[in-house]
């Protein structure tokens, strides 16, 4: 059992929460990841989500962006009757998806492993470097570390967006880029010895892989590559 403690803000939306978030976010509420965008299709925050019911949805945001998200959604929540709570939870990345969970825990699916939000205190036994290697190996970037306010499609063409869900804030520029061209950049995992000097300088989450000796990390590359 390998656990890494995460620094995330927990927001619990209540009272027709699924319908409320559907109009503000780029992906379907039933999907593991989603995003809040501005009117230009640029990222305010990406987040993990769990739909408990039509009335309750819980999301996890990187802590530095919690206030921005609350400022963004509060004006709409007041008009819709949605309430937003910040329950006290400890957040862990369960790398092997084998940690015991309680009925009171919230579990968020990931590309590899899972995230557990729990009122319990668990033992984190994974170093920062080990978790960074896990993220890079499995293509799991973090908002605020590997990307900030980029156009959403530069970060992901599928993880945080639906092209069939209907209208949402920031949909128009996303649809134009998707339907008429392609994003200028894409976030990829790349070995340092494959990078240009400029890419080496911009690489994030850089880590050495003990299995191969290669240094790798996340970097934005031209979509023409």
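^ Assign residues to that structure.
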């Amino acid at each position: 059992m390998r656990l890494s403690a995460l620094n995330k803000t927990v927001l619990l939306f209540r009272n027709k929460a699924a319908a409320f978030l559907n109009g503000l976010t780029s992906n379907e509420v039933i999907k593991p990841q989603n995003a809040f965008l501005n009117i230009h299709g640029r990222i305010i925050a990406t987040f993990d989500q769990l739909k408990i019911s039509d009335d309750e949805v819980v999301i996890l945001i990187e802590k530095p962006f919690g206030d921005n998200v609350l400022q963004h959604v509060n004006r709409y929540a007041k008009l819709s009757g949605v309430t937003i709570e910040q329950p006290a939870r400890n957040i862990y990345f369960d790398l092997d998806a084998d940690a015991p969970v309680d009925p009171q825990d919230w579990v968020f699916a990931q590309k590899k492993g899972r995230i557990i939000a729990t009122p319990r205190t668990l033992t984190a036994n994974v170093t920062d470097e080990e978790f960074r290697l896990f993220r890079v190996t499995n293509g799991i970037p973090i908002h605020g570390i590997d990307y900030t306010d980029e156009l959403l499609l530069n970060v992901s063409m599928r993880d945080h967006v639906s092209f069939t869900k209907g209208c949402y804030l920031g949909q128009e520029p996303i649809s134009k880029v998707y339907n008429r061209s392609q994003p200028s950049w894409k976030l990829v995992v790349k070995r340092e010895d494959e990078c240009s000097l400029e890419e080496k300088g911009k690489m994030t989450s850089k880590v050495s892989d003990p299995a191969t000796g290669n240094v790798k990390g996340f970097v934005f590359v031209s979509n023409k590559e």
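The radius of gyration is 18 Å.
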